[in-house]
Amino acid sequence: MDTRQRSIRIAMLPWLAHGHICPFIELAKALSKRNFYIYICSTPVNINSFKETISEKDSISIKIVELHLPNLPELPPHYHTTNGLPPHLMSTLKNALDMAKPSFFQILNTLKPDLVMYDFLQPWVPTMAASQNIPSVLFLTPGAAASCYLFHIGRKKLVSEYPFSAIYLRDHEYDRNRHMFEPTDDDGYTDTQRRVNGCIDGSSEIILIKTIRELEGKYMDFLSTLCDKRYVAYVPVGPLVRAAETEHENSEVMKWLDSKQRCSTVLASFGSEYFLSKEEMEELAYGLELSKVNFLWVVRFPVGTKITLEESLPKGFLDRIGNRGKVVQGWAPQLRILQHSSIGGFVSHCGWSSVMEGLKLGIPIIAMPMHLDQPLNAKLVVDAGVGEEAVRDKNGNLDRQEVAKVIRKVVAEKTGQRLRKRAREYSEILKSNGAKEIDEVVEELLKLCRLTTRHDSTELLY
Fold this sequence. Notes:
The chain is α/β, with parallel strands linked by helices.
């Protein structure tokens, strides 16, 4: 779709996390093909990690703007991101972003965008945009099922009144996310709930959300009723799955996959910012071994970890599995791997982007969620019939027998045929949708934008 107008200018401010920045970038790429001009604002440490994902062609319409956080003794510049951030500094990072208001105000004042697109933890952004008569839109990168459960509770409504019984938290999952639910002030809200509520209420007419209506339509409709002040329309932007990596097509990993039979192998990968504990790694290792299923396991360690791969795995594990399994440390071309004909299942933490990737490529999911929205995403995966969950015990611990059982169920048993069929049905839906969701997003954004000529300033560009 062509807007047939001068380029509409959008300033984007995603939360300082890889899992949030990537969907903003993919949305920017889609919009840039429809006569939108995008400025993506982030901290230098994040920019260094994502600037190479914006091609020379994309960079014509997508510009990077540095956002400078204040210099805090406990939060040096390399911690201006959630990647590698010690957990106890998360609230400090949120506060530091709040303290960057003058920097972002200067960006808006200089660029004078037609629209501001922001994330779920910055309620001051729509207020600042409104002060300059600029419309602003919240873009939610988590899915609708997880969002409406968390927003329902965040609006101080009873869990018993939540209408979708398939989406819930077990006791140990609630305990792991207790910081999201227990009030921090006299008003009865947590800091996260207060921020999210402000972001929802500040969005101009619509809220964008990374999903498809065919999967989460009823949850999107319910979300629209949760705003206290008015009815808000939630507009799906689609799965925003990035293009598959091509430079590793003939790598050692791909050659190893070529030696495996169709749908005989699982990929085990847990995202770029979530890490298994030593105990979890051990249970997963034994689970993979006991399953007798081929596997490719991508192992990552937190920044600064001194433990070696061999030290983190059970003694003799690599020798026992032989060529049936392959363990890769650090990074692997996940999308290329998931596209391979030998892959029959995806052992995943159920980060929302990973769920969307699995569905886009028609791969059933073996859910091993950790925290935040992941347990809720896992319930959706099971309810939608596109995967099974390796359920932890009542204390939240993984069990090797459970892991092995679920892997075999998805890959080696008849149940897996039904799951693969359903996953492929969603894959066909996503393929047939094409650009439908983005076209709808363009129409909605054009309604909000003031189509007046603005001065083109580039002095802040990276």
